[in-house]
Design a protein that fits this description.
Rossmann fold, binds flavin mononucleotide
Length: about 180
């Protein structure tokens, strides 16, 4: 299957990026086709143009870093998102990424892609794992269910557990 990695952090040494890369490495070793898309530049928010709701429209019409993502998505079997925690929540790029999935339903509200694609989310944070942050991550991830994704358990990559969790990300990819 095709597996798309989406990494939000701008940092070269980002833990969420490392976890996404590890997942893709595992998936590739398991025989899947993988591609990484980094949202550290040229990411635009949904502009509410409604072009995606016109009859016969494709996915999003914007030509930014997500154009490639929406080109790959219809054929993909899994998406893995990596994001940093900023001020207790998933960083803004992750929310923008989520918002842009508005284009997946047409004017008739029907989904334009096959449902059931696996959705993994990895969050990197300084603090240890805690229920308040998990609730915030859940809020960001919940809309993916409405868009037909099969949401998987989130993976928390905290500063103290990074090495172990990046290894876990690799195992998750390998188990795909
Ligand atoms: C603007 C900013 C806000 C942050 N806020 C939090 C926070 O509220 N809680 C926390 O645990 N870590 C916080 N951190 C730490 C990051 O979540 C941590 O460094 C994480 O590894 C960043 O993800 P990345 O390594 O994928 O870039 C913050 C970092 C920055 C730059």
């Amino acid at each position: 299957m095709k597996v798309i990695g989406v990494a939000c952090s701008c940092l070269a040494r980002s833990n969420s990026l490392k976890a996404v890369e590890a997942f893709l490495k595992g998936a590739a070793e398991a025989g899947h086709e993988t591609e990484l898309i980094r949202l550290d530049r040229d990411l635009r928010g949904c502009i509410g143009c409604q072009a995606c709701k016109k009859e016969g429209a494709g996915l999003c019409v914007q030509k930014d870093v997500l154009a490639r993502y929406f080109e790959l998505l219809p054929e993909a079997g899994a998406v893995v998102l990596g994001a940093a925690n900023y001020m207790g929540y998933a960083q803004g790029e992750a929310w923008t990424f989520m918002n842009r999935h508005y284009c997946l339903s047409g004017g008739d509200r029907k989904l334009k892609i096959e449902p059931g694609k696996k959705f993994y989310a990895f969050f990197a944070q300084g603090s240890p794992d805690n229920p308040a942050y998990r609730e915030h991550y859940d809020e960001m991830c919940r809309p993916f269910e409405g868009m037909g994704f099969a949401r998987q358990d989130v993976l928390i990559v905290s500063r103290d557990t990074a090495e172990e969790k990046i290894r876990e990300a690799y195992e998750l990819g390998k188990a795909l």
